[in-house]
Amino acid sequence: MKNSLRLAATVAVFVPLMSGVALAGAIERACMGSDRQVANRSLCGCIQQVADTTLQGSDQRRAATFFKDPEKAHATWMSKSASDDAFWSRYKNFGATAAASCGG
């Protein structure tokens, strides 16, 4: 019982300290790693929060690849695939929501 309480106390102390790095989502990591001058922790964190509410994990990972390779975004947009069209619709909603919420 004492070990369980110690573990819980340790987790309660260290998880918030790690959250900025270890728990950053795919979109936030891609944003922070981009070469865009406006990228900063506040903006990228906001965009990640929007992604968390509008995109599932697999969509977030796919969208994160667009930061390093914008051609992937263009190829997805131009695709005739029904699954790409569905993804693009979700991605456009995410982008519009992020722009409205994060001031971008």
Secondary-structure map with pairings?
Elements: H1 2-18, H2 26-33, H3 41-54, H4 57-68, H5 70-78, H6 82-102
Helix pairs in contact: 2-3, 2-4, 3-6, 4-5
Kindly, what is the distance between the CA atoms of the first and last residues, rounded to a whole number of angstroms? 49 Å
User: DSSP helix count?
Assistant: 6
Quantity of strands, as a count: 0
What proportion strand?
Answer: under 5%
The helical percent reads over 70%
Q: Low-confidence parts lasting 5 or more residues at pLDDT below 50?
A: 1-22
What is the CA-atom radius of gyration, in angstroms?
17 Å
Q: Shape from CA axes?
A: globular
Sheet with most strands: none
- SSE pattern: HHHHHH
Number of domains: 1
Q: What do the pLDDT scores average to?
A: 83
Structural class: mainly alpha
Explain what you see:
By secondary structure, the protein is mainly α. The chain has one domain. Helix content is 78%, strand content 0%. It contains 6 helices and no strands. The longest helix has 21 residues.
